[in-house]
Amino acid sequence: MSFDSLKAKIPDFAKDVRLNLSSMAQDETLPVQQKYGLFLACGIATRNADVMAACEAEARPHLNPAALDAARAAASIMAMNNVYYRFVHLASNKEYGTLPAKLRMNVIANPGVEKVDFELWSLAVSAINGCGMCIDAHEKVLKEAGVPASTVQTAVRFAAIIQSAAVALEAAGATARAA
C-alpha cells in the first residue's frame, strides 16, 4: 500500500490528514535516509497495519536493508523504553529513577546507520508514544550533534501527521462497525 492508497482510505472528515500526508511526502527538507526512516519508524509506532504498510512501501525504495532495519529497531526499542521511562518519570515514587533499568538497549549505541538519523527516529517515535523523558534525552543528543531545531520540529511534525492518519482510519473503522 502506498501513501496514495492510504490517502484514499482516509475519510472525508479527516481531509486535512490527507493534505498533510501529501505535503509530508513532498517535503524535501530532510536527507533521504532521515525522511524515509522517519516514515517507517513512525508508521510502526502507530500500530496500525494500513499505516505501517504504507510507510514501509514509501520507505523501501529509498532505504538500504540496514536503514530499514534501523528504523524498525528505533520503533521497537522506543516501544520498550517509552513505557519504562514514562513510568519512571510519572511515578510519584522517585526511587524508581534510582534503580537500574536492566533493559538491553545495545542498538542505540550501534544502530547500523548514522547516530543522528537513529536519534531523530527515536525522538519522533517517543513523541508518538508520549514519553517526555525520552523526548528530552534524544533532543539533547541531537542538539549536541548540531541538529537544528527546524529538523527536530520536522521530525515531530511527520510523527504527528502519521499518527493522525492512524487515528482517522481507526475512527472510520469504529464508525463503520457501529453502523
Automatic annotation (TrEMBL):
The active site is at 131 (proton donor), 134 (cysteine sulfenic acid (-soh) intermediate). The keyword Disulfide bond applies. Coiled coil: none annotated. Keywords: Antioxidant, Disulfide bond, Oxidoreductase, Peroxidase, Redox-active center. Disulfide bonds join 131-134. Pfam families: CMD. It comes from the Bacteria. Its EC number is 1.11.1.28. It catalyses: N(6)-[(R)-dihydrolipoyl]-L-lysyl-[lipoyl-carrier protein] + a hydroperoxide = N(6)-[(R)-lipoyl]-L-lysyl-[lipoyl-carrier protein] + an alcohol + H2O. It is an enzyme of class 1 (oxidoreductase). Belongs to the AhpD family. Antioxidant protein with alkyl hydroperoxidase activity. Required for the reduction of the AhpC active site cysteine residues and for the regeneration of the AhpC enzyme activity. HAMAP family: AhpD. This is Alkyl hydroperoxide reductase AhpD.
